[in-house]
Amino acid sequence: MKKIIKYVMLDILRSKVVIGYTLFLLTVSLSVFSLEDSADKGLLSLLNIVLFIVPLVAIIFSTIYVYNSAEFIELLVSQPIKRTTLWLSVFTGLTSALSLAWFIGAGIPILLYQPDSTGITMIIVGLLLTVIFVSIALLASVKTRDKAKGIGLSVLLWFYFSIIFDGLVLFVLFQLQDYPMEKPMLVFTTLNPVDLGRIMILLQMDMSALMGYTGAIFREFFDTGTGTTLATIILFIWILFPLWLSVRSFAKKDL
Amino acid sequence: MIIANNVNKSFGKLQVLKDVSTHCDEGQCIALIGPNGSGKTTFIKCLLGMVVPDSGFITYRSRNIVHDWEYRSHIGYMPQIGRYPDNMTIAQVLDMMKDIRKQKDHIDESLIDSLGLRSIMHKRMRTLSGGTRQKVSASLAFLFNPEVLILDEPTAGLDPVSSQVLKDKISYEKERGKLVLITSHILSELDDLITHVMYLQEGQLRFNKSIETLREDTGEEKLAKAIARVMQS
Fold first, then answer.
1. pLDDT (0 to 100) of residue B185
2. How far apart are the C-alpha atoms of B102 and A79, rounded to whole Å?
3. For chain A, N or C: smaller number of CB within 10 Å?
């Protein structure tokens, strides 16, 4: 398994996209921190960028990578390697490369300017979102044979999690405003990892005004500690569930 | 050595393999023959575990291959169209396979030399011609000295000299008691190589018998004519 991860990592680093992504994150986070007068404000501006860019890069890059390495995967499937091992190695290679890019590009500036619990939460949320969207990308690409369709599906999924979901929540809320919606809304929140990530950071920052409806409810029901733990657990489910589905589907795939 | 039992496979509505049952033993050199789209490649991919049968099972040395993956270390596979990572050189691909297989001894690099790959080791896979790719595939299939060789159209796209080199290598390995499975449309080149013929038509296995029996049954000496006789009847 280690060897396959090594080859996947080497291949990813050779493509230079990840290096570009690291430099981009580095530029953005450094400029945001030096533009704002307080590091708190800087973190907040960074948050909005992070919640859009990290999932987008993770999901698109991973999908394209899986399709482009179809030959590599095909070659290895005919070798004495367990399919599960092969797939998990691709997953580990992708997540480690992208997480490393996130850590160097955004993690180090955050640690320099705001080395407190909020900053660390932010780094962890970024890492979790990276892994979650790699996992979703692997599921999308194993399920669709056609490259264009697979990438389209990935873009659509990102669009759903980042933009459409909020619209849906508001829509449901307005339609059912006569009913008590607090508890159903809690369930709704768990359906979107990006939203959960935002809530996790804002819980730490203590900025209720920016939490939005779902965040405010989260706040109302849980104190910071329980809320954060619960959100982390759900984010881990968001990693493992798509990954498990994709492993199962890859084990039976005809190549 | 390899036993297939009622293997069925469909892609969507198209049933590619219908109840294929057969067995292959050591020292045999089997020609897998059939019209285009008769399921030859699918059958081979089933043997390699690249395609999972819908029903039925395949065993290698009396172990079911569904949950076993280590049996693949005894198989050398040469695909019909070799597809390799574009930006790796030939040397890197070979090294990667050695690294992954973890096999230190009994490495057989004779084909790399005899096919003349040694001098172009630094070339990237995307710059190679179809024939050179075939040469890389062939070298990879023989590299680990496997017990079973599965060759899908091995000489398609190779020049006459390389083709002869490969055929000599195949017959040498056959003499050493290995099981060789070949698909090919060029029947004349199989004549002096094979011991058995397996004939697939529309996903059904028509027969798997030794070349002597086939010659007796059809009364033809040449394989090409014998197969033509079978197809007509």
1. 83
2. 11
3. N
Instruction: Give the model's pLDDT for residue A25.
Output: 94
Residue B11, beta-bridge partner list: B14
pLDDT at B119: 93
Cβ atoms of B105 and B68 closer than 8 Å:
no
pLDDT in tens, A43-77: 888 888 888 899 999 999 999 999 988 888 988 88
Closest CA to A39 of A48, A30, A49, A51: A30
Q: How far is A252 from chain B (nearest CA, A)?
A: 6
CB contact A254 to B (< 8 Å): yes
Work out how many domains chain B is built from and give that number: 1
AA letter at B58: I
Q: Which domain holds residue B35?
A: 2-232
Q: Do B50 and A252 touch (CB under 8 A)?
A: no
Q: What's the CA gap between A229 and A184, in Å, rounded?
A: 20
Q: Which amino acid is at A226?
A: T
Residue B124 DSSP code: B
Q: Which of residues 45-104 of A touch B (CB under 8 A)?
A: 69-72, 74-83
The CATH number of the domain holding residue B26 is 3.40.50.300
Cβ atoms < 10 Å from Cβ of A130? 27
Distance (Å) from the C-alpha of residue A2 to the closest C-alpha of chain B? Answer: 10
Distance from the Cα of B29 to chain A's closest Cα (Å) equals 21
What is the pairing mode between strands B14-24 and B2-11? Answer: antiparallel
Low-confidence stretches of chain B (pLDDT < 70) are none
- Give whole-number Cα distances, B87 to A14, B154, B169, in Å: 9, 24, 29
Interface probe, candidates B10, B83, B97, chain A, greatest A C-beta count within 10 A: B83
Angle between helices A83-102 and A17-35 (to 10 degrees): 30
The pair of three-digit structure tokens given for residue B3, joined into one six-digit string: 């036993």
DSSP B127: G
**CA A37, A202, A18: angle at the middle one, nearest 5?**
75
Residues of A in contact with B45 (CB under 8 A): 254-255
